[in-house]
User: What shape does this take?
Amino acid sequence: MSETPRRRREGTSGPKSGQKSGPKEDGRTARARATRARITTAAAELFTTSGYTATSMAAIAAKAGVSEQTLYYAFSTKRAILTTALDLAVAGDDEPVPTLDRPWTRDALADPDPVGQIRRQVDGAADIHLRAAALLDVVRGAATTDPDLAEVWATNLRQRLTVQRVFAEALAEKTPLRAGLTVGTAADIALTVLAPETYNLLVHTRGWSGTRWRDWAVDALVGMLTTLPADRTTTGASSRRDARRMADDPEDAGRDNG
Assistant: This one.
């Protein structure tokens, strides 16, 4: 995730996602916020269609309908625009709430059922991918030649791993992990299964529906991380059918069956 993930200390309070805190913003602040939103929305579209390197600050300003002076006043660099757009896409809003303090994450961690936790975990990742997978792919691709974006990608990867480790620790408290599996390895596996690269490959390249990806991810995590039987998930039979289809006809397995 692109925000620094952290747990809120017990006994402290703060605004929940979607809630405003402090005084109501004035008209000037609201206009500035709206301008930044237009810029990041325009930039995200250009980055994902034209590429990060090929997108100029002038192109972003034109797409957003603002002057270049206004653009540079709001964001001093193209990297600043990209990281802000990525934060907004991952979070779904501009509230400064870390991933581990988001309601969906807290609900998943609090779910006493290990399969329920995994299902909520997958749902949360799927929602993020709907908003951010394409932009994350831009960052990953540009990171090979741009040192600044290599740092952005490394930070994002490190933060996602931190989140997955918290989930793995919570899962291990609810059900035994597979024999020989450490919390660290469980986090690595979840990081791979729920990675935007995996999502983009199966959904955007192989044509899976979002629902099919969710079902597969739940079954994969339950099967690889826990000793729970396959019938603990409601999608086990469907995943087994997919496995048989893939063995019989790899091309057909890549086409979603609805």
User: Anything to note?
Assistant: Residues 78 and 191 are 28 Å apart (CA to CA). The longest helix spans residues 114-142. Residues 1-20, 243-250, 252-258 have pLDDT under 50 and may be disordered.
